[in-house]
Amino acid sequence: MKLFAPEYYKSFRCIADKCRHSCCIGWEIDIDPDTVDVYKALKNGYGGEILKSIDFDNTPHFRLAENERCPHLASNGLCRIICELGDEYLCDICREHPRFYNYTSNGLEVGVGMSCEEACRIILTSEGYRVVELEDDGEDYTPDDFDAVSYRDRVYSILSESAPYKDRLQMLYEEFYISPSQLSDDEWRSVIDSLEYLNESHRDLFRFYSSDTVTDEKYEKYLERALAYFVFRHCGSALDYDGFRASLGFALFCERLLSSLASTGADDIYGLARIISEELEYSEDNTWDIVNLFNTAL
Fold first, then answer.
1. From residue 108, how far is each of 17, 111, 122, 134 by CA, in Å?
2. Nearest partner of 37 among 21, 22, 56, judged by Cα
């Protein structure tokens, strides 16, 4: 089976202690069964501290320490498991984050999520939308009948045209009969209020949403790249045309939300994009609630 990724994927490297928004803070980290077995087999040294830090009730996970820090996050921002034992002793979540995987009509795709500070920087500074083949393990793969990738390619074709950005967005709305403006701004703000948040202050931030926001031209390339990312992550694995359109609606809503927040005068477009990804993409309930609104409208 072939493995594909955006061209920028190969540029990603975790920046560890240089990260201002560590994924080792604020997240409950589940431990996969194979890694649990590895930890249980550790007899000496740091292995004992690892076992003491695990809550084995329900799904095994690390008990968060003070300020919701992973108990193995050292004060210098480095992972003690890696420092003491090596990265081969990481559980699956820690090893893979911020990567995500989707099965498509072409094979398996991998990307990096924009909730990660460094991934966000790479995504928003990378030109183009090329998806490249990384490897082929030779295994047979039978794709679903619906070819969502070809429709995604059409989205990218429209985005790459030379027309003004607002005109390209309008072309997408008209070609796929989907647009965030199918709901009024007040209706979207009601939806925003109903979502769950990791940080409650983001609820107030997201209330600045407007489908008709006109942002400074200096942000347009960032908005275009963010939209291309959302489309890559959410549209390529659609099982039918309506599912593709609903997922595209989610991507377009996220783009309009980023545009709205950028229009408030906040200079950190990277931070705003990261927050949107963290709050909307990394909550399956939030993602589904928004996608389902577009499903209902079809």
1. 31, 10, 21, 10
2. 56
Reference 227, options 98, 123, 137, 83; nearest CA is 123
Q: What stretch of H or E contains 86?
A: none
What's the CA dihedral at 143, 146, 152, 158 to 10 degrees? Answer: 140
Query: Cα(178)–Cα(162) distance, rounded to whole angstroms?
Result: 22
Q: Tens of pLDDT along 15-58?
A: 988 998 889 998 889 999 999 999 999 977 898 899 999 999 88
Region 183-195: mean pLDDT is: 96
Domain ranges for the chain, please list them: 2-11+97-136, 24-96, 148-297
Contact status, residue 124 vs residue 226, Cβ threshold 8 Å? yes
Q: Give the mean pLDDT of 194-222.
A: 93
- Alpha helices by DSSP H, listed for the chain, are 33-41, 47-52, 80-85, 92-96, 117-125, 148-159, 165-176, 185-194, 201-206, 220-235, 241-262, 269-276, 284-297
Q: Which 3 state secondary structure label does DSSP give 221? A: helix
pTM of the entire predicted model: 0.93
What is the tens place of the pLDDT at every residue in 217-235?
999 999 999 999 999 999 9
138 pLDDT band (50/70/90 cuts)?
confident
pLDDT at 297: 67
Which amino acid would we find at residue 139? E
Q: Please tell me the distance from the alpha carbon of residue 13 to that of residue 49, in angstroms, as a whole number.
A: 28
The helix or strand, by DSSP H or E, that contains position 3, with its residue range, turns out to be: strand 2-6
Four-residue CA torsion sign, 36, 40, 44, 46: positive
Q: 3: burial class by Cβ within 10 Å (0-12, 13-18, 19+)?
A: middle
